[in-house]
Write a structure and sequence with these properties.
The complex is a heterodimer of chains A (198) and B (228). With 198 residues, chain A is mainly alpha-helical. Chain A is built from 8 helices and 2 strands. Chain A has a two-stranded antiparallel ribbon with strand order 1-2. Chain B has 228 residues and is an alpha/beta fold. In chain B, helix 3 runs antiparallel to helix 8 (122-134) and helix 5 (71-84) packs antiparallel against helix 6. The chains are: A mainly alpha (198), B alpha/beta (228).
């Protein structure tokens, strides 16, 4: 029995513990980035009006303010051998592909697909358009960015990431009834146009 | 006798085209297709909200699983639906998308929309298409890509494309619902005169065309029904 116990705890011990340690280090840094994102969103949301250009500009300012902390986390990720931009790009493509299957239950047992066909919710329609637009753009950039992102693609990625944050802020403002549906639809429309403008 | 094809015949009667016939197409037909695609694209973007509602209504009673189908099948159904609802120009765009392999669009659809499945839900497909055409560079090059695809297929089927110098022909026409038909007829007439061809046939799917063709006595119009 002792032999079996030794196998149970020992088999794969080194490789698993080694990997876990590495994954934990990476997770800790990704969580750090997530925390910074939440602080940026909160700050921008608190002073947000309904003007998309203003929201985008506030996001850029907030990101600038947090840049040293963000850079520190990125440097640490790179030191551990991760490529944070490439990894984020690959995972965001997969995430959007999954959401755009539209079969995930979202409310009252209904899927996103049910709601899109049955409801006449303009905000939901616009969010769907934005998700599709971002997905299409991220797929293209992911193809362009191999080992390194050309400056043009990196610049575009920065613009898309800011617009994605702006989408979330509009969505939160509507959710908290700080803006009405009509304003949200106008703002989201503007975001789709900006995403697809190049 | 030389047989000319019109836009409708070319797009709708591909299955009837036989290699042994001496079939020809004037470059004017391709110009009309390009023009119609441009118009269809513009209207598709302008009327997108209405079209989206049509799609929602049409497919909402079908279960999610049965709703999913290939993009080509959706495009074909969309063309029928839009034709029925009076959006002929946008229907033309969807007919062409359904029937031809259009370089650029097809590859893009494969790597994005069809990434995880060969079947998609129609609402995703039309939002995808709208987004694709909203991108300025896609919007600008798509009509030419369509013409390239059709040219390629014509060459594969040994259908000759007669290049016509049409500079004055289109501009001299006054506007009217039959402007595109008259233009195609004038192109054929010019080619026949320049090459001493006494008589030709013109294959069309348009029942109004024999009327428009009355002044052109040496062009015999054959109306064919190809919607099978």
């Amino acid at each position: 029995m002792a032999g079996e116990a030794a196998v149970a705890v020992g088999l794969g011990a080194f490789v698993e513990e080694y990997l876990t340690q590495r994954v934990n280090e990476l997770i800790h840094l990704y969580r750090r980035l997530q925390e910074l994102r939440r602080r940026i969103l909160q700050e921008v949301e608190e002073k947000a009006g309904e003007d998309v250009a203003e929201i985008v500009s506030n996001i850029a300012t907030a990101i600038q303010r947090y840049a040293p902390e963000i850079e520190e986390a990125l440097a640490e990720l790179r030191r551990l051998g991760a490529d944070p931009v490439k990894a984020s790009l690959e995972s965001v493509v997969e995430e959007y592909a999954e959401v755009l299957r539209l079969d995930i239950p979202v409310s009252g047992g209904k899927t996103l697909e049910d709601l899109l066909y049955e409801s006449r919710d303009e905000v939901l329609d616009k969010l769907h358009e934005i998700m599709m637009a971002l997905f299409m753009e991220y797929v293209e950039i992911n193809e362009t960015c191999g080992r390194e992102c050309p400056p043009e693609a990196a610049q575009k990625l920065e613009k898309l990431a800011t617009l994605e944050l702006a989408t979330y802020i509009i969505y939160k403002l509507l959710h908290r009834q700080k803006i009405d549906k009509k304003t949200a639809v106008t703002a989201l429309n503007e975001i789709v146009d900006k995403i697809l403008s190049e | 006798m030389i047989k000319f094809l019109d836009v409708g015949y070319l797009i709708n009667c591909r299955h009837k085209i036989k290699q042994e016939d001496k079939l020809v197409v004037t470059s004017c037909v391709l110009k009309v297709i390009r023009h119609k695609i441009k118009k269809g694209l513009q209207l598709f973007i302008e009327e997108f909200e209405i079209i989206k509602d049509l799609v929602k209504n049409y497919y909402s009673t079908i279960t999610s699983k049965r709703r999913r189908r290939s993009p080509k099948k959706i495009a074909e159904e969309m063309a029928q639906l839009l034709e029925l609802k009076g959006y002929a120009d946008i229907a033309f765009l969807f007919t062409v998308i359904a029937r031809y392999y259009i370089r650029g669009l097809e590859e893009h659809t494969e790597k994005t929309l069809l990434r995880s499945s060969s079947k998609v839900t129609p609402i995703n497909y039309i939002v995808y298409l709208r987004n694709y055409f909203k991108k300025p560079r896609n919007y600008l090059v798509f009509p030419d890509k369509v013409v390239d695809s059709i040219r390629k297929e014509l060459q594969q089927n040994n259908i000759e494309i007669l290049e016509i110098d049409d500079r004055e022909l289109w501009l001299d026409l006054d506007s009217g619902t039959d402007r595109e038909d008259r233009y195609q007829l004038l192109c054929i007439d010019k080619y026949m005169r320049n090459n001493g061809i006494p008589e030709a046939r013109f294959l069309t799917t348009d029942h109004r065309l024999p009327n428009t063709a009355q002044p052109f006595e040496n062009i015999k119009v054959d109306v064919v029904d190809c919607q099978a």
